[in-house]
Automatic annotation (TrEMBL):
<dbReference type="GO" id="GO:0008270">
    <property type="term" value="F:zinc ion binding"/>
</dbReference>
<protein>
    <recommendedName>
        <fullName>Enoyl reductase (ER) domain-containing protein</fullName>
    </recommendedName>
</protein>
<dbReference type="GO" id="GO:0005829">
    <property type="term" value="C:cytosol"/>
</dbReference>
<feature type="domain" description="Alcohol dehydrogenase-like C-terminal">
    <location>
        <begin position="210"/>
        <end position="335"/>
    </location>
</feature>
<feature type="domain" description="Alcohol dehydrogenase-like N-terminal">
    <location>
        <begin position="36"/>
        <end position="164"/>
    </location>
</feature>
<keyword id="KW-0520">NAD</keyword>
<keyword id="KW-0862">Zinc</keyword>
<dbReference type="InterPro" id="IPR013154">
    <property type="entry name" value="ADH-like_N"/>
</dbReference>
<keyword id="KW-0560">Oxidoreductase</keyword>
<dbReference type="InterPro" id="IPR011032">
    <property type="entry name" value="GroES-like_sf"/>
</dbReference>
<dbReference type="Pfam" id="PF08240">
    <property type="entry name" value="ADH_N"/>
</dbReference>
<dbReference type="GO" id="GO:0046294">
    <property type="term" value="P:formaldehyde catabolic process"/>
</dbReference>
<dbReference type="InterPro" id="IPR013149">
    <property type="entry name" value="ADH-like_C"/>
</dbReference>
<dbReference type="Pfam" id="PF00107">
    <property type="entry name" value="ADH_zinc_N"/>
</dbReference>
<dbReference type="InterPro" id="IPR002328">
    <property type="entry name" value="ADH_Zn_CS"/>
</dbReference>
<comment type="subunit">
    <text>Homodimer.</text>
</comment>
<comment type="similarity">
    <text>Belongs to the zinc-containing alcohol dehydrogenase family. Class-IV subfamily.</text>
</comment>
């Protein structure tokens, strides 16, 4: 039992008071965990594009004030009633989508879209009582994705926590709680490349080149509007670059030409609807598979000619790389512990409107290096 169990914990958090306005680091009160909830001390948290997307609130429902953050690693501080699978002191990764273990999805080998705990971007409260565990002078502060890791302490549903190897360095495996696992799962579990050499096209996410390499890709084509990212992306395994701005025809035509008909696998991570369509149309007919990962504008519509599908191209989508967070994430951490280097660079979190820094740190940038050789 920790000395703070059952008590409100005052700590620092980065508060988003309004869409697009700088986060303010200030003291927040974190209530104890209720039934099936866990309060954790966040040791490391990273900035993921989805945080920015909802902070900007363009094309999404605005919900403020709010504590963002969903990629993190930490230690269990206390647990609420009914929690039996994690204990005080356990090392854990919070995940934006959960696993109740009982619903049809959790019982299916094919799905990680838990009925109870699947991602809900519009909910700012806890499931058990519809209330927030965060407040400032009595004003409730909304949660984000059930994780809200831009806080020194946060409360998470126990089904959204993966208990991991206590020897795993939290500053490294932090990035497995969203981005890297999503990229790895999108390539290994969803794109499912055949054994042997194949080509893979990645849309704007050079960090995932390492995931494609782990999955055996020999030719990794990075598509990016920013030529400055190319040099860095090369270090992580991108073998060729295509900048749509360099061409006066659709980029999928350019990719089809340089790959003799299209790539074997394509993974789209930006959420831009036109990039999604290009990512689908650039795969080879007969066997090509495109996987959508990025979060689109909620009104976006995917348009392509049906003949592109009839010609035996496959379009798939995934949340969190089809990994079940509690069941599968510990083995992803072990995979890292055994072989795969992760590289992170950390910087203290401060904001322009706050001179105080925050003991939780934000990683900029993050990358996965190398393969499994
Ligand atoms: Zn994320
Ligand atoms: Zn479930």
């Amino acid at each position: 039992m920790s000395t703070t169990a059952g008590l409100v914990i005052p700590c620092k958090a980065a508060i988003a008071w309004e869409a697009g306005k700088p986060l303010v680091i200030e003291q927040v009160e974190v209530a104890p965990p209720q039934a099936m909830e866990v309060r954790m001390k966040v040791k490391y948290t990273s900035l993921c594009h989805t945080d920015l997307y909802f902070w900007e609130a363009k094309g999404q429902s605005p919900l403020f004030p709010r504590i963002f953050g969903h990629e993190a690693a930490g230690v269990v501080e206390s647990v609420g009633e009914g929690v039996s699978d994690v204990q005080v002191g356990d090392h854990v990764l919070p995940v934006f989508t959960g696993e109740c273990g009982d619903c049809r999805h959790c019982k299916s080998e094919e799905s990680n879209m838990c009925d109870l705990l699947r991602i809900n971007t519009d909910r700012g409260v806890m499931l058990s009582d519809g209330k927030s565990r965060f407040s400032i002078s009595g004003t409730p502060i909304n949660h984000f994705l059930g994780t809200s890791t831009f806080s020194e302490y946060t409360v998470v549903h126990s089904g959204c926590l993966a208990k991991i190897n206590p020897l795993a360095p939290l500053d490294k495996v932090c990035i497995l709680s969203c981005g890297i696992s999503t990229g790895l799962g999108a390539t290994l579990n969803v794109a499912k490349p055949k054994k042997g050499s194949y080509s893979c096209c990645l849309w704007s996410w050079s960090c995932w080149a390492g995931c494609a390499r782990i999955a055996g890709a020999s030719r990794i084509i990075g598509v990016d509007l920013n030529p400055k990212r190319y040099e860095e992306a090369k270090k992580f395994g991108v073998t060729e670059f295509v900048n749509p701005k360099d061409h006066d025809r659709p980029v999928q035509e350019v990719i089809a030409e340089i790959t003799n008909g299209g790539v074997d696998r394509s993974i789209e991570c930006t959420g831009n609807i036109n990039a999604m369509i290009s990512a689908f149309e650039c795969v080879h007919d007969g066997w090509g598979v495109a996987v959508l990962v990025g979060v689109p504008d909620k009104d976006a519509v995917f348009m392509t000619k049906p003949i592109n599908v009839l010609n035996e191209r496959t379009l798939k989508g995934t949340f969190f790389g089809n990994y079940k967070p509690r069941t599968d994430l510990p083995s992803v951490v072990d995979m890292y512990m055994n072989k795969t280097p992760l590289k992170t660079t950390w910087t203290p979190m401060t904001t322009s409107s706050s001179s105080s820094s925050f003991s939780v740190r934000v990683k900029v940038p993050v990358s996965l290096q190398g393969g499994m050789e």
